[in-house]
Amino acid sequence: MEKLILTLYFCLFFGSLTFSQSKTKIACIGDSITEGPGRESPASYPLQLGEILGDAYEVKNFGVSGRTLLKRGDFPFWNEPQFEEAKAYTADILLIKLGTNDTKPQNWKYKDDFKKDYIALINEMRKAMPEGGQIYLINPVPVFQDNFNINAQVMDEEIRPLLIKIAAETDVEILDLYSPLLPYSELFPDGIHPNTEGLSLMAKALSQKIIK
């Protein structure tokens, strides 16, 4: 009888301990490349990332198509419900992948605000995260073809170098999606957006860094 009681005790104790262990929460904010075929689509890179990382992680997709980092851009991410939702999620890890739509001429005319606005976004999100939370800037995937007014030259010669400065000033790390995707132009049918296989490569590249 005593053995049975002891067995039940250990089952209840360790069972409740396992149940109480919270998952590591990851929030992904960005534009159409983050949103993918849909925020709840298993093909989107955030949901593929969650599948790779497994049950110890919970990954949420807060991407919104066409959105800019610039506050004075044509469609700022700042104005979207997903901005507030991402803050309320109180993620342990935040992945920021913005900047592609900022290369459009109507947005890049405010390029002097880019660094300031990016730092402001980091600070806003950091305040909402638990102590010890990690923020990563993502060096965006390649722009293989100017399309939708998105400009590869602006991305490569102006935005990517700015991201390095922003990361240094805010003490955050850059995760590179440019180099891993550069050999795979065939996975970008319109030169801008990766297909499902390309989104899978994104998820795999990011998972390796997060797991490490």
UniProtKB/TrEMBL annotation:
<keyword id="KW-0326">Glycosidase</keyword>
<dbReference type="GO" id="GO:0045493">
    <property type="term" value="P:xylan catabolic process"/>
</dbReference>
<keyword id="KW-0858">Xylan degradation</keyword>
<protein>
    <submittedName>
        <fullName>Xylanase</fullName>
    </submittedName>
</protein>
<dbReference type="GO" id="GO:0004622">
    <property type="term" value="F:phosphatidylcholine lysophospholipase activity"/>
</dbReference>
<keyword id="KW-0378">Hydrolase</keyword>
<dbReference type="InterPro" id="IPR051532">
    <property type="entry name" value="Ester_Hydrolysis_Enzymes"/>
</dbReference>
<dbReference type="Pfam" id="PF13472">
    <property type="entry name" value="Lipase_GDSL_2"/>
</dbReference>
<dbReference type="GO" id="GO:0016798">
    <property type="term" value="F:hydrolase activity, acting on glycosyl bonds"/>
</dbReference>
<dbReference type="InterPro" id="IPR036514">
    <property type="entry name" value="SGNH_hydro_sf"/>
</dbReference>
<keyword id="KW-0119">Carbohydrate metabolism</keyword>
<keyword id="KW-0624">Polysaccharide degradation</keyword>
<dbReference type="InterPro" id="IPR013830">
    <property type="entry name" value="SGNH_hydro"/>
</dbReference>
<feature type="domain" description="SGNH hydrolase-type esterase">
    <location>
        <begin position="28"/>
        <end position="198"/>
    </location>
</feature>
